Records
---
Amino acid sequence: MSSNRSASEIDEEAADWAARVDAHGLDVEHDPQVQAWLRGDARRAGALLRAQAAISFLDRGRALANVAPAVDTVVAERPSRRTLIVGAGGAAAAALVGGIGLWTARPQRLDTRLGEIRRVPLADGSLVAINTKTALEVAMKPKSRRVVLKEGEAWFQVAKDPDRPFVVAAGPVRVRAVGTAFSVRRGDEAGAGVDVMVTEGVVETWIEGGPTPRRRLSAGSKIVLVSAVSPTVAESPSEIERSLAWRNGEIALDGESLEQAARLFNRYNNRQIVIDDPVLARERFVGLFQTNEPESFAAAVAATLGAVVSDDERTIRIARARIS
Amino acid sequence: MKQSRAEIVAFVGGQILPHEADVRAWLRRSGSLAPDIDDVIQETYCRLAGLESVAQIANGRAYFFRTARNIAIEKIRRARIVRIDCVTEIDALNVVDDEPSPERVVAGRRELGRVQQLIEGLPERCRQIFTLRRIHGLSQKEIAARLGVTENVVETQSARGLRLILRALSEATVQDQSEVGKAHELQSVRKRD
């Protein structure tokens, strides 16, 4: 290394080059001037990559501004042909609809399979993140935006449009928003209730045909709505963020029992975690795991507790190690 | 198979750079000095720049922590006098990358908000240009015409904005730091009732 410039000086030069490359669409690998600069110091290649990466990082902000929605898909399994078409065609469909000036009359159907997690931009600029084994229908009308959550869980980041309320229906439960972000989850069993968690802004919830008055919920609150039972509201922003770790394909544990953790993993995978020992099942854990890697979770549990894991195609069995 | 530069840049922008503040905070906790940290970070990017493909990197965050740790250890070993506690300290921290805590998840989730914050934190002219270029996707020429300035001014301001953003990205916020601190304490902790 010929130059004794500091890392931060190189970073500043690299920013200038990255801005130039971006402005003129230069080809880094073949542009003689860029190459000459890079050859001057071995560290420059890293600094230029970092500066260009920062530009790319900032471009992710476009998704926020709803200008050019990007389709960002996290899949643990191969998506079905149909979901692929919907996913890739989302932006094109939006452009088409906008161009003709008509709203799609037929609702758009979005499904995920076991273990699949998708982010899909909607025609109005909103974004929906769909968790494992979920089915929903989206109907965009001139005066309303309506989503029916048939099963599973989804998180919505709603584009502001005061003239077109955004309403999510989950059974008899309704959640209405103007410009905000929230998630709705239907319980697995019939009559299990609907969880609503608000991450930004304010939403209004009610039970269609029910006696309870409408309730307003602000960011950081969670409500569980079960028909005929008065809803409970809890405030816990960090808890909500943790419950929504699935949007990144992750499960965040903070003191859950092994039994609860196993149930969380089993929502995403064909291979089910089974715990044989009731004492083991009550052990509590903290950690972050991938939804589609129950094996590494089991391995971490085994290492921490001195348990043994035996697995076959369908199950991952965690048991207490025998004392020899 | 060799990947295009654009693919590698996009990967680094999405999977590596957002974790830089955390890696720096972690190096600071292990007792490294600021100029050394700058060098370790820069060398990590250099190694990435030397790769033909990043397809084999499954977890960018883990890769970043692991590579930075290896480089830091190499640096310590290259130094004439090796402080044993330095090596062991960095060695002891190697669990960080595999099991980030819920707190860190929250930090990651704020990523997009952070992009907006970064742009909003720029001086007025820079911010205007950055918004037009990055958010609205206008070309340098279009921006110059719209703002009634020369293309040269747009380019200079873009470079200036990028410098400021790069600096901001390497500085963890106070909040981030406390989160990372907590995260470390929570590392592989098993709760008992």
---
Amino acid sequence: MTLDFFIQNFINAMQWGSFLALIAVGYTLVYGVLLLINFAHGDIFMVGAYTGYFIGTFLTNNFEIKLPFDLPSWVVIPLTIVATMFITALVGVAIERIAYRPLRNRGAHRLYLVITALMFGLLLEYGNLALLGASDRQFPNLFDKIIYSIGGITVTNIKIYVILLSFLIMGILWWIVQKTRWGMAMRAISYDRLAVPLMGISVDQIILFTFVLGSSMAALAGIMYGTAFPILRFNMGMLVGWQAFIAAVVGGIGSIRGAMVGGYILGFTQIFVAAFLPSTYRDLIAFVVLLLILAIKPTGLFGVPRRTKV
Amino acid sequence: MKIKMLFSIVSVLLVTAFFASACAAGGGDTIKIGINAEITGDKPKVGEQSKFAAEMYVKEINEAGGIDVGGKNYKLELIIEDNNATAEGAAAAANKLISQDNILAMVGPNPSNAAVPAGEVANNLETPMISPWSTNPNTTLNRPWVFRAPFLDPFQGPVVANFATNKFNATKACVLFDIASDYPKGLADNFKEAWEKLHGAGSVAKFESFTTGDQDFSAQLTSIKSSGCEVLFTPQYYQEVPLIVSQAKDLGLDVPIVGSDSWGDPQLLELCGSDCEGAYFSTHYVASGATGATKDFIDKYNVAYKYIPGDVAALTWDSMMLVTQAIKNCGKITGNLTDDRTCIRDGMAKIKDFDGITGKMTFDAQGDPIKCAVIVQIQKGEFIAYDSACP
């Protein structure tokens, strides 16, 4: 195999891994704070993509309701991103308020929360199907695609943006969790849930902040995913969501670094198996590799075994 | 439920009464053709188009004075039965049409789930049947009395293989398909077999697959690019085609991309935009840019029913024409049901180089048409008939 072929696949894997990592980080954030596997996260990502679709279509003047003027793309892009993040964060917070908090306050077992999350994910999916119908939608072109060819390697500007933005976002996230007071509170909750309120920190507020953070990340991932793969369907979040969840578990759920590494490991195995072996075996081999990692290190690569306090 | 049933019984009675009276009023000699259609159930649009096309055909023939069989003029008479788009409904409708209404030939049912059981009934009761729309091989398999108007999927693969060979002078092809879905999987296999027959073993350089729901095809397309294929065949639906086509372009894979009849959905044009411009695929029939008899049919249908007919309407029209041709080939109507049905079946099997609006066709021993498929090119956001590819 030539070097070109290898580098091309490396870039493909970087893009795919970035998506998985971004979504995996959302799972891990909520888990780290709440010890809750938020199975609705894949569908929040779908909500993000659809919100981005509606706002983007509206701002680029392709929607039924027209703006009286055309906006330049340097206005459209940040506006779409900010508005989508805001609305998706609201959805995430609404789910936490409607579904999780009442159960938590009644002291329900975490298992029920996980099942509620699963149900809420399905509710989002089929709510979308009922409201918007079964036909697929095309994500609007927020900016022009440029294709660069260097030797035998071809890269679009979208791919470059996706990879760079993902690193930037995950860097910012790491900074928030490690360096800010809010992040410190989040980490504190995950160490000792009972001691934190005694220090005068509102647990509910921190949880809300976690959901805002996780959902707006999902929104960003949704916009980037929509730009890279511009066909939206009501169940688009499910498959990607599950794969990202597995990536988060392999990386060690609860660890942000782990989710990133897990996402890229899964992305790289999937792409390279499909590139060098018959593509039929892609998922089979990819998930066997992940199973092996978990068999050797059951807590995931960066996971720390938790002791149950009695 | 009961009221609904009562309604359908009453309406069937009324329809029968209407036709009976029409027949009595018209007098003279008529040939009865049964329509076994999906008037109710989950595919009402299919049955509606099929029924409309058949009615339009009969009206036209009768206004022109009927058909000439052995020097005598016969009018056509339609007897329409609803099969509710179910297996039981189709078998019951076939039974009724054949045993009670004494039809000479049956057109329909359309979907395979209804056409397979109805074919069993027609074959057992020795009445010629033609399905306008069913592509499942089992509909006609080992049933000398059953025919069909569309091509089969094992036939479409070679059609595309031939087209791509001639059009692009290609000897090396790649295939990208969904391995978890029956239709793409079957058609991909058929294409591979046909291509290797034309160009020898190993001429399908890459046979890449993915699973339903995947949206990133970059790894498969990178492999395809490095293999030096001259054409890419992807028998996918409109959900995947736009992604495959645009990702291929992004990766600098600039070989022609060819598809199959699953591409022929208006949503494909909407979702694919300019990326699909110039791509080709095979299908039964194309409405826009049609010429000659096909265009006449579309215009007439559009005037009468206010919409552009889909492939099932065009294929029903052809089925009616095939039945008429079979009667003409038979050459005489004796009035003895068994003799006439046998004679029409033989006439149908004899049909050669028949000029239909969905193409020229000749039946093989199995009752499946050997016919050309339409090759459609996407031009300026429209399906344009480019060529017809023949086996």
